[in-house]
Design brief:
Length: about 600
């Protein structure tokens, strides 16, 4: 049988001595020379000797040759003979049974194990090099030491698939493999292992199919997109990929982000992560502007790149919440794409189609016939349940807070309020939303993680929650009252072409600056009073600053992003930009063109139909 004679075996890196068959031919790699013969490797760690009498040709180190196994002695020494054949067929021997999975390490303390894993982080300590290893069953650390503070296995890089052997130990109550051998797998084996790990990880990362907390047609239609986001986030947690959560710095945005923060940090803990792991793998940061500013992306990239060098971390995923779906985000996305970052968006602002080319997943009620009434906080809480279902009991009241915070008028508002009415009245929810807005103003760019948890009653300390919210609400209301008493006498009234009432207030000179409430909130409060005073009539309120205007409206079918775009084209040198929701938003311009831009804006508002 010709073919049988020409069969040659390639020993996989997981194979041990007992997997070698005497009388068969194997591929081998020349390792070194001695007086009495040539040493060769049969795989990554099994070595044999070709006695000088059995060497048939001349070699240099690293040469690939064929050897016949003549004998395996009791002491483990392997006697080989060099074989020279021109045509042969290679058969790979994959020794799977000797492989341990990371999820099984706890049962192997004190034993030597052999693992095929992906390297998810490489951290150099002042002692050993710590390799974070992942496979389809879990995540564990391995320590390799050559010299204090010196990088072990410098050829192994982040994301490599490697074969590792070593002893399983307990160190500070944590499992750790003391790595005695590590090798990057050759392409063929790598693909097999990668396929196995990926497939199993994908299955694990796929979110459970849970019903939403309320009935909602819009949410049902958004389910596939939400699952996609949940899947990418869960997989990031399983594969040690950091996540940066950027969000709008208002009550709705905070609620959305804190829901997801709670889910992600809980999942990290469940996966065995400690507080240190948590702070490396997850960051939440509010954005002052209602979009992803260059300043924000620059900061995020700066940290990510430093962590990549310093802690051998993967580059992060960017998750945008209550932000991120408009053209204004694109310059920052372009920047993030230089580093191939994955960007996810969960937003309820009117989306620009062009933005989608930067996004791996995008949840937005406008995609399915809904509108901003399904707020980011509602989406965030439901998404959090997909990421980590047990989170629900902590965040059930979040969507109701978001609903009143963002003044949703969608049917979802009432449903979420009813869901928690036994514990939180509508008034309670409004107080929490106001407390969040007030506190975030003073937190500025900080996430205020623990204070925000108390405001949202996420810590189960009801007494402190109540005390804090009531104090913040009192302070906020006093500040609003003071602002209104100062500003209201300066409001100017006119009637527009479409019969809507226009009220303007110069928030630069007739309002306190650099304090709460900021211009947007001040304009909103003034608008609310004017709406009440003019029941049933269409009302537009403009809060005008030196280089910006805040727009609030009721009963006028306007489109702020569209007006901004038109003004930008029509007013040369106006430097117009901005946006927001269709009927609530803001516009920026250069100070010297203020009068031109404002009169252009008012003219456009007067042309929209009224309800
Ligand atoms: Mn919002």
């Amino acid at each position: 049988m010709e073919s049988k004679e020409n069969l040659v075996y390639r020993l996989g890196s997981g194979c041990e001595l007992s997997d070698i068959v005497i009388g068969e031919i194997y591929e081998a790699k020349v390792q070194g020379f001695a007086k009495f013969g040539t040493f060769v490797y049969l795989n990554s760690h099994i070595k044999g000797l070709i006695h000088i009498s059995n060497v048939k040709s001349e070699h240099v180190e690293g040469d690939k040759i064929l050897v016949l196994v003549r004998n395996i002695r009791d002491n483990g020494n392997i006697d080989l003979e060099e074989i020279i054949i021109r045509d042969y067929e290679v058969n790979s021997v994959m020794c799977k049974k000797s492989q341990t999975r990371l999820g099984d390490l706890k049962n192997k303390v004190g034993y030597n194990v052999s693992l095929d894993v992906e390297i998810a982080q490489i951290k150099q300590t002042s002692g050993p090099t710590i390799f974070t290893m992942i496979d389809e069953t879990g995540k564990e650390n391995g320590a390799a030491f050559i010299e204090a503070g010196k990088r072990a296995y410098p050829e192994v890089e982040l994301g490599d698939i490697v074969h590792v052997s070593g002893e399983v130990m307990m160190r500070n109550d944590q499992l750790q493999v003391e790595i005695s051998y590590m090798e990057v797998l050759p392409e063929e084996e790598k693909q097999q292992v990668l396929k196995r790990i990926e497939k199993a990880l994908d299955d694990r990362a796929y979110p459970e199919d849970l019903p939403f907390m309320i009935e909602s047609e819009v949410l049902e239609k958004l389910k596939p997109a939400m699952k996609e986001v949940a899947f990418i986030i869960r997989k990031a947690v399983f594969t040690n990929q950091p996540i940066i959560l950027r969000h709008h710095a208002d009550a709705d945005g905070i609620v959305a982000a804190v829901s997801v923060e709670k889910a992600i940090t809980s999942l990290i803990r469940e996966e065995g992560g400690d507080p240190d792991t948590e702070s490396h793998l997850f960051k939440r940061a509010p954005s002052k502007a209602p979009f992803y500013e260059i300043e924000d992306v620059t900061r995020d990239l700066d940290y990510a790149l430093k962590d990549n060098v310093k802690y051998g971390q993967k580059m992060p995923i960017i998750l945008m919440m209550d932000n991120g779906s408009t053209e204004e985000d694109e310059p920052s996305y372009r920047m993030a794409k230089v580093y191939d970052l994955t960007i996810l968006v969960v937003d309820h602002h009117h989306p620009d189609e062009s933005t989608d080319e930067f996004l791996s997943a995008h949840v937005n009620p406008y995609h399915v016939g809904g509108d901003f009434g399904v707020t980011a906080g509602m989406l965030g809480a439901e998404l959090a349940r997909m990421i980590f279902p047990p989170v629900e009991k902590y965040i059930r009241h979040f969507p109701a807070v978001a609903a009143v915070g963002d003044r949703s008028e969608a049917p979802e508002r009432e449903k979420y309020l009813r869901l928690v009415e036994d514990e939180y009245s509508e008034e309670n929810c409004k107080d929490i939303a106001l407390a969040l807005d007030y506190e975030q103003f003073w937190l500025r760019f900080n996430d205020g993680r623990e204070i925000v948890k108390d405001i949202l009653n996420l810590k189960n300390d009801h007494v402190r929650h109540k005390k804090l919210v009531s104090l913040l609400v009192t302070e906020a209301n006093a500040a609003i009252e003071e602002q209104l008493q100062t500003s209201m006498p300066h409001v100017e009234r006119s009637v527009l072409e479409n019969d809507s009432l226009l009220f303007t207030i110069d928030v630069e000179i007739y309002a306190h600056r650099f304090t709460f409430p900021p211009p947007g909130k001040t304009s909103g409060e003034i608008h609310d009073i004017l709406c009440k005073e003019n029941e049933g009539k269409p009302v537009v309120t403009l809060g005008i600053g030196p280089d910006f205007a805040v727009i609030r409206s009721r009963g006028v079918l306007m489109n702020i992003p569209l007006m901004v775009r038109e003004l930008r084209e029509e007013i040369i040198g106006g430097g117009v930009n901005g946006g927001g929701h269709l009927v609530v938003g803001s516009i920026k311009f250069v100070e010297g063109m203020r009068d031109t831009v404002i009169s252009g804006l008012i003219e456009k508002i007067g042309k929209f139909p009224i309800e």
